[in-house]
Design brief:
single chain, alpha/beta, Rossmann fold, five-stranded parallel sheet, 9 helices
């Protein structure tokens, strides 16, 4: 069931929209008596996505996630290992990796994810011979298990983990549960929605993506707490 829900995705995702439209089509064309219900469902889906696409709504939803404060330049110095997790808002993660690497230009950079992440890091100015790729971990739980295994083979040195500011609360909770000693570096999302002015009331795809990812992370936090992987208080 969890795998099915994960495949469908959060409201705002293409997969969720496709499933919603399919349900509407079935209600309208397969059961003609449910024509009004089908039309009502499609109207509900449309209104929901418009609301989620409002920047002020996206900001409020993402604000429900436990905060992980950004780190200053001093915390980025003398890092031996810099781990960049793949996931939402890849460009923001790459930008933050570039900033962190500037403070520790001798660090080894691990890209936990696709080849796109490696290419992005190289384009950001990080030497290819200082980048290693691990494309195995497909989700946050296994990403952090891999991080723990990786760091357990190293003796000393400072390590940092980069994830988007939306995924980082879950990463932070797993770090606390595992007892890892790492610097957590939350990255900004690719394009932040406006937080002031009239544009906060203008729907945009950028805001829809933030709403989608934040809803997913809130659901994942609740699920992790239910499974006992992190404290149910939600510090993840």
């Amino acid at each position: 069931m969890v795998s099915i829900l994960k495949a469908i995705g959060a409201p705002g995702s293409i997969s969720f929209l496709a499933v919603s439209l399919a349900i509407g089509a079935v209600l309208i064309y397969v059961w003609p008596r449910s024509l009004r219900l089908g039309r009502g469902w499609l109207l509900f889906v449309f209104i929901t996505h418009v609301v989620l696409a409002l920047p002020w709504v996206a900001t409020r939803i993402s604000g429900k996630l436990p905060p992980v404060l950004p780190v200053d330049a001093a915390a980025l110095r003398d890092l031996d290992t810099l781990i960049v997790l793949d996931g939402d808002n890849r460009r923001g993660r790459v930008r933050e990796a570039k900033r962190a690497f500037a403070g520790s230009p001798r660090s080894m950079v691990w890209a936990m994810g696709s080849l796109w992440m490696v290419d992005g890091l190289v384009e950001a100015g990080i030497p290819r011979d200082q980048i290693k790729q691990d494309d195995e971990p497909p989700d946050t739980l296994r990403q952090m298990t891999r991080v723990k295994d990786l760091l357990s083979t190293k003796s000393g040195g400072r390590a940092a983990v980069i994830a988007s500011r939306l995924q980082m609360p879950r990463v932070a909770a797993l770090v606390r549960e595992s007892g890892l000693r790492v610097v957590l570096i939350p990255s900004a999302i690719d394009t932040e929605p406006p937080t002031s002015g009239v544009r906060v009331f203008v729907p945009s795809y950028v805001a829809l993506r933030v709403s989608r990812d934040a809803i997913y992370e809130l659901a994942a936090l609740a699920y992790y707490g239910w499974r006992g992987w992190v404290r149910s208080s939600g510090a993840e």
